[in-house]
Amino acid sequence: MQIIFLHYVPPIYVQHFLFCYVLDGVTKCNHILRRMCMKELKTIFLIFSLTLSILMGCSAAKPADDQPKKQASKADIFIETANTHILQTVDRNISGDRTKENIILYVNRTKDGMPQSWSLVVNGIEKIKLSHEGGLYSFAEMNFVDIDGDKKEEVLLYRQSSGSAGAKGLNVYKPTEAKWQQVFSNVITTDMGQERFQVKYMGDYFVRFEDKETGLKAVIELNKKQYQGIENMLKNISTWIDPIIDYSLVDHDGDGTKEIITLQRVIGISHADTIALLKTTYKMEQGQYKLISLTLCDYNDKPLAEAKL
Fold this sequence. Notes:
Layout: H1 11-60, E1 84-92, E2 101-109, E3 115-122, E4 125-131, E5 139-145, E6 154-160, E7 168-174, E8 181-185, E9 197-203, E10 206-211, E11 217-221, E12 246-250, E13 259-267, E14 274-285, E15 288-298, E16 303-308
Antiparallel strand pairs: 1-2, 2-3, 3-4, 5-6, 6-7, 7-8, 9-10, 10-11, 12-13, 13-14, 14-15, 15-16
């Protein structure tokens, strides 16, 4: 920096001038530096914001293959308690692959030991839960049968009462990866069939049978020898149809799919006296079992009448 004096100026004034000039320069420099720092800070902040946005966007946009697989919800996981007990356990391949699943049938009991519900658990996941239907059922068991010929077993869950009538319920499930598909179930009634059926003694060892729902009618001939000495009790025969006591799975038509046939007893003068058998047949149609016929047979299993439905 060069200063040219055209006139004489006292040294004190020169010093003062120099001091003010330098001070002013410093002030201007500071101001410029501050402006430069603000610009740099703004630039750095902008770069940081853009970088963070890019990182978050990449994290949210994971490809489908990188997404975690859906896990079983906590509600599906079966938890044993002091009231749950194992009835059956088996390792069985029901999925169609080479892996066997661990399948356990549990019963949940009250403090008094009475069953409240049954749970079918596969690899720790509760697939099915059924109740005791208001105390109707006391026992349960599971079975496995390929009912539709696809080389994969369906799961059959039976429940049975402890009474003399022996009411027996059946639910059939087709295992799938998610929720199992129920392909068969029935409603068990305990009104002795009095709302639907009519049974009446006609005399001379003949009994009239009628199903008011399907219109099926038949006459049942009794075995005279069986009632010798107690003929006077025959007039007391009235409507008394036991609940379903058994099931049979048979492929009658050879199409590879099994029909389900339920069996009920028609009662005579006492519960030990079976005068006829009532058979209801269900056939698989479009993935569900449909009622197709009702057949009345005598006590020797000879068909007496049939209604196609």
